[in-house]
Design a protein that fits this description.
About 50% of the residues lie in helices and about 15% in strands. The protein has about 300 residues and is of the alpha/beta class. Helix 4 runs parallel beside helix 5 and helix 7 packs across helix 11.
């Protein structure tokens, strides 16, 4: 397979950026990998693990001779990072990101790039764990997972092709989706589960006997709250960037909880069992052999 980049710049060498670098390097699809980041400790780990070849802290030096850029920083910082790099990038360099919110991010980046917006294609690699940083990166994290591209009418065909080749080169199944459709979907299936996990942990923490209750926490609590161990900085950015869709999803979730609460309070076993059975049927579809999620590797 042809190289996706002779010189790849990764701004934000964390779980996703680092895993992408490892996957491409393992497959021989990239030449030099340059890392741009604010944490000296994290960048040292990235160097020690062979994720990147060198570190640059100056955007102008980092952009020199680069033919592809991946911005894998918290969503609230993506446009600012692009703004710092864009004036120094070679004309043919393509830019993509790894944010899980697309509408506001793509809009901000295109405004930042102005006439050169054709070189940017938004991307959302759907993979991860509750861990973060270069130390958590693995060469297999992205393998067989979905990556959603969100090109706009301003995105050039060449940019889309090269962005697709990048993520597919890491072993991902790449598809496209308009940003306006992407954000409400992921508010429900990604952002809301994190809200629920954070809220569940906080509920127990706020209880008078929290420390005692946690000593009895078993598989159900641990599995249901695993993602509450994720980066607060990253998820605060995501929730705020996608706030309209997220608040709507929370309202729907509160409605579902209220219906269950009312059935329990009224001792309405028939209504309670019917609601639980509906949820069970939907959940079982996720585990059916033909469903995409059943084919994906679990992090």
């Amino acid at each position: 397979m042809k190289r996706v980049a002779d010189r790849l710049l990764i701004a934000g060498v964390g779980l996703i950026g680092g895993s992408l670098a490892l996957a491409l390097r393992q497959r021989g699809l990239v030449g030099e990998i340059v890392g741009l980041g604010r944490s000296r400790r994290n960048m040292r780990v990235a160097l020690e693990r062979g994720i990147i070849d060198r570190v640059e802290r100056d955007p102008a030096r980092a952009a020199e001779g680069v033919d592809l850029v991946v911005v894998a920083v918290p969503v609230g910082a993506i446009a600012a990072v692009v703004a710092g790099l864009a004036p120094h990038l070679p004309e043919r360099a393509v830019i993509t990101d790894a944010g899980s919110v697309k509408g506001p991010v793509v809009g901000a980046v295109e405004r930042t790039l102005g006439a050169s917006a054709s070189r940017f294609c938004g991307a959302h690699p759907i993979a991860g764990t509750e861990n973060s940083g270069a130390a958590a990166a693995t060469a297999t994290l992205l393998e067989a997972e979905r990556c959603v591209l969100t090109p706009t009418p301003r995105t050039s065909r060449t940019t889309v092709r090269r962005t697709r080749a990048l993520w597919a080169g890491a072993g991902m199944r790449v598809e496209t989706l308009p940003a306006a459709e992407h954000d409400p979907i992921f508010a429900l299936v990604s952002h809301l589960p994190h809200i629920a996990a954070f809220a569940l942990v906080q509920t127990v923490a706020d209880a008078g006997s929290a420390s005692r209750a946690l000593t009895y926490a078993a598989g159900g609590f641990r599995d249901g709250t695993r993602v509450a161990g994720s980066s607060p900085e990253m998820w605060a950015d995501i929730f705020l960037a996608n706030r309209r869709a997220v608040t709507k999803a929370i309202d729907q979730f509160v409605g579902s909880c209220t219906r269950l609460r009312n059935a329990i309070a009224a001792e309405d076993r028939e209504a309670l069992e019917a609601a639980l059975a509906d949820a069970q049927r939907v959940r079982r579809r996720l585990s059916s052999p033909g469903h995409a999620s059943a084919r994906r590797r679990r992090p």
